[in-house]
């Protein structure tokens, strides 16, 4: 997971739940992030390409999904985990100074996008039980209903979509 390379993760049947970041509806830091950086549901939010920006992106997605859209905490939890993975990839692999974050909602779906200036495509790699890194896209592939990459004239947008109605 983004930012947890080299850290021993819990094993056993509760592994996935224990490794997730759990959003709280009354998270003042999420509201502070929205005020400071902007609303990714209204326009693309530009964030510095630094590891600590993953926390900002998580908070922004959390406040949009829970407070603005009024969707379930389970959906917010999964979206927060997946945006953290996309941001981690953008920070680690693109060499960019900035990346963009955007959220969209349409009937029955949410979409989260991370845009960066690199045209290098992410690669879904096989994951082994003892791997401590390289699980980001594997998680996106398992938890998102759809995901992909849109090449742009200068960079790419990596995105995932999740059904909002039945989560």
Note the topology.
Layout: H1 15-19, H2 28-37, E1 45-48, H3 53-68, H4 73-93, E2 98-106, E3 109-116, H5 136-143, E4 146-152, E5 155-163
Antiparallel strand pairs: 1-2, 2-3, 3-5, 4-5
Explain what this protein looks like in three dimensions.
This protein is globular. The model is unreliable at 1-23 (pLDDT under 50). Helix 2 crosses helix 3 and helix 3 (53-68) runs antiparallel to helix 4 (73-93). The protein has a 5-stranded antiparallel beta sheet with strand order 1-2-3-5-4, covered by helices on one side. The protein is built from 5 helices and 5 strands, in the order H-H-E-H-H-E-E-H-E-E. A hairpin with a 2-residue loop joins strand 4 and strand 5 (155-163). With 167 residues, it is an alpha+beta fold.
**Tally of alpha and pi helices:** 5
Strand content: 15-25%
Low-confidence stretches: 1-23
Distance between the termini: 22 Å
Q: Cα-atom Rg, whole angstroms?
A: 15 Å
- What is the approximate shape? globular
Mean pLDDT: 83
* Global structural class: alpha+beta
Write down how many β-strands occur, each being a DSSP E stretch of 2 or more residues.
Answer: 5
Give the neighbour order of strands across the main sheet.
1-2-3-5-4
Helix content: 25-40%
* Main β-sheet description: 5 strands, antiparallel
SSE pattern, N- to C-terminal: HHEHHEEHEE
């Amino acid at each position: 997971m983004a930012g947890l390379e080299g850290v021993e993760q819990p094993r056993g049947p509760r592994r996935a739940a224990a490794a997730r970041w759990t959003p709280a509806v009354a998270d003042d830091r999420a509201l502070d992030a929205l005020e400071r950086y902007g609303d990714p549901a209204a326009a693309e939010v530009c964030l510095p390409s630094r590891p600590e920006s993953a926390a900002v992106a998580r908070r922004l997605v959390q406040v949009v999904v829970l407070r603005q859209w009024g969707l379930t905490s389970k959906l917010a939890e999964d979206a927060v985990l997946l945006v953290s993975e996309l941001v981690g990839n953008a920070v680690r692999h693109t060499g960019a100074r900035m990346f963009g974050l955007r959220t969209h909602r349409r009937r029955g779906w949410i979409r989260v996008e991370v845009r960066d200036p690199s045209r290098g495509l992410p690669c879904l790699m096989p994951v082994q039980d003892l791997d401590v890194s390289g699980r980001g896209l594997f998680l996106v592939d398992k938890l998102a209903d759809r995901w992909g990459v849109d090449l742009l004239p200068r960079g790419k947008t990596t995105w995932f979509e999740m059904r909002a109605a039945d989560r």
